[in-house]
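Researcher: Please predict.
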Amino acid sequence: MPYPELVELEGYPFPVLVSPGTETRGRVIGDRSLRAYEFLGKTLEFEPEFRVLVLAPEHWKAYASFPLYGMPHYTEARTIALAGLDSSFWQSLLPSPGTLPRSDEDAMRLAYGQEDGSLNLSPFFDLLAVHEMGHVFHLQAACHFPRLWLMELFCNMCLHAYVARMEPGQLRPLETFPRIVAGTGGGVLEHRSLRDFEQLYTDLGSRNYGWYQCRLHVAAKAIFEAGGVDTLRRLWKTFLRLHESVTDDDLAGVLEGEVHPAVEHVLSHWPA
C-alpha cells in the first residue's frame, strides 16, 4: 500500500512512516520498535516483515483500520498503526477525580502526572506498539492460539517481558493504569467472562474491551514474575506446534503441563 502523505524515517531495518509533524514521537516509537523487534526475534526465533505507521488524526482514516483515533492496532499482518499525537480517547479513560483511593491517585500521578498537574496516559499507550508487534509475530509465523484471550495474553506477555528486560524504567507507566482498571472488578460492565470475550471480542465496546485487556496486562506481569521470558517462549512454541481445536479442559492441561501453571491460572481463575 502506498503512503504518499507520510514521511519515512531513516535508520531502521523496517519502514517507519510518520505524518508530518509527528517525527519526534515517531522516532521514539521507531527506536522502541527496533529494540522490541530484536528482543522478540531472539526470544521467539522468528523475524517477521512489518512497517510502523505513526499517524496524525488527518491521516488516521486513510491508513488505520480502527475508527477511534489513538487505539493502537495492526491493520493487517504486516502493518502497525499508532497515534502520533495525544488522543482525547486516552484522556477519556482516566478515572474521574475523587473516585479512586488516595493510594491509587498518588500512583497515577507518579506514572502519568504532568507539570501542570494534569494526567496524560500517552506513556502507557506508546508502549502498546510492542503489544501490536506481538500480533505481527504470531500472524506471520502462523502461531495459532485456540482462544482470542490467549492470543491477547501472548501479546501482553511480549510487551511485559520486553519492558522488564529492555526498558525497566517504563514498568511504572506500563503497570499502573492496567492495575487500577483491573482492580475495579468490572462490576459496572456488561461483560466479564472469557466466554463473552470469545463471542464478542471487538464488539464489546471500548471500555469493556479495555477492562479485559487490563486484566490480561496484570496476568502477563504475574506470569513473567513466575516464569520469566522462558514462559513466553514455551507458550509460543506450544502453539506453533498445536493447531487443533481443544476444549477448555484440554487447554488447561496443555497450559499447565507444557507452558506454566501461571498461564493456566488465567483460565481457571478468571472472574465469571
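Model: The chain is about 60% helix and 5% strand.
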